[in-house]
Write a structure and sequence with these properties.
This protein is mainly alpha-helical. 46% of the residues lie in helices and 11% in strands. The protein folds into two domains: 5-103 and 117-262, no CATH class; 276-319. It has eight helices and nine strands. A three-stranded mixed beta sheet has the order 1-6-9. A two-stranded antiparallel sheet has the order 2-3.
Length: 326
């Protein structure tokens, strides 16, 4: 979708200004505080297991838990930002820095008596340079947006280039409210030495030629440096995505199995193991030994039993013979 170009007049800078930087700083502090509180609550939780986990199982469980924790944290923070954004779109607060949209009308009757003043408020809108198109009214279309142009200024040489007229700010989008402009825009301009130089020149030009006091002394500034190996957000990444990620490049959880094991080290360990005590050959040999032993034992017992029986029978025969002699 091609956006209409928004031309900035000298009475107000519609690109990244103090209010945008202040909002970005507030969101950064909010994200940092939210993360600190969430991490503190997370570390206060107990991790209990019935048995001591192996290092691999411990890492798997903790990685899954941390992934769910981070995902839940990002979802809740996004919900907070979206809710605040929705309230702004629904309420349509009057936030104009100038009085152009606040009109006081005074009237008098036929006798010259002053009547109560009437106040008219123009609805917030996005104005573009295309005369054939209508202005986008934020009350009816909260998605109004437009590209940002710096105003016309005298010819100047910046970075070896002759520059005159207006300049389109790369990555900057003007929305209905400050939060819209911030979330729709990127930081491309602040990675470009040429764009930063133009912005710096414009601030000097506005401050000294239009007697605008920004409240700070202007200093030499340098563009941001993008390192693909160190940053997850390229310069053309919208601030909405960066804010939704809580401005975190990478989460670096530290999992220490040694601390867990030392804290939960058991007094003793038990384990079960199935061991085959004898093979089939061993069982067969044992069985044969038992049979052989029983055979020998039976032989001895039977031999002694027979001797005992003969002894009894002989004793009985002797008693009978002695009785006959008497």
């Amino acid at each position: 979708m091609k956006l209409p170009e928004l031309k900035i007049t000298d009475n107000g800078y519609q690109g990244f200004g103090a209010q945008h930087m202040q909002l970005l700083s507030t969101l950064c502090n909010l994200a940092n505080k939210t993360i600190d509180d969430a991490v503190h609550r997370f570390t206060m939780r107990s991790f209990a297991t019935l048995n001591v986990l192996s290092e691999r199982n411990f890492n798997d469980v903790l990685n899954t838990t941390l992934k769910q924790f981070i995902q839940s944290l990002l979802i809740n923070f996004k919900l907070l930002i979206d809710t605040s954004h929705l309230f702004t779109q629904v309420d349509q607060p009057f936030t104009k820095p100038d009085q152009n949209d606040l009109i006081f009308n005074t009237t008098a009757d036929q006798n010259g008596t002053q009547q109560p003043s009437q106040i008219s408020i123009r609805l917030n809108s996005i104005v573009n340079n295309d005369s054939t198109s209508m202005d986008c009214i934020c009350a009816t279309n909260p998605q109004c947006q437009s590209k940002v142009l710096l105003p016309d200024y005298p010819p100047v040489v910046i970075g070896g280039h002759n520059l005159s007229g207006s300049y389109m700010m790369p990555g900057m989008i003007a929305g209905c409210f400050t939060i819209d402009s911030l979330l729709l825009s990127t930081l491309e301009c602040f990675y470009s030495n040429f764009c930063v130089s133009i912005l710096y020149f414009y601030m000097n030009y506005t401050q000294y030629d239009f007697n605008t006091d920004f409240g700070v002394s202007l200093i030499d500034v340098h563009p941001l440096v993008y390192e693909p190996s160190m940053s997850s957000f390229p310069p053309n990444t919208s601030l909405k995505i960066i804010v939704q990620q809580m401005m975190v490049e990478q989460w670096n959880p530290l999992i220490l199995f040694d601390h867990y094991y030392e804290t939960c080290s058991p007094i003793y360990c038990t384990y079960g193991q199935t061991v085959r005590t004898k093979t089939f050959v061993g069982v067969t040999i044992t069985f044969l030994f038992i049979i052989g032993g029983l055979t020998v034992a039976l032989r001895l017992i039977i031999f002694q039993l027979i001797k005992f029986i003969f002894f009894i029978l002989q004793s009985k025969v002797k008693r009978q013979n002695q009785g006959n002699y008497k």
